[in-house]
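Re: beginner question about structure tokens

> Can someone show what the tokenized structure looks like for a real chain? I only ever see the sequence side.

Sure, here's an example I had lying around. Input first:
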Amino acid sequence: MSPKVTRFSKSFIIEETEQLVEFHPVNTAYKQLYQIYIPLAGKPYRIHMQKNDQGRFEIAAKDQVPAHILELENEFEAAIIQS
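And the corresponding structure tokens:
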């Protein structure tokens, strides 16, 4: 039986400041979709990362996500894989 997928937090440098980002899995049996909460302007900003057909995690609805957050996509993916 594979381990249960759980929420976790990890620090990232966002706009020159260390920020604690929260990763909330939508499915607790498999890593496939996450809601990610990023502190932005004093409020939690939510994005979604989902596993694509190639098995990589990518930010969904990229056209609605600020560029400085999009730049962290690979780092967010690595955090999910390592969790």
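Each token stands for a local structural state, so reading them left to right follows the chain. Residues 73-82 form the longest helix (10 residues).
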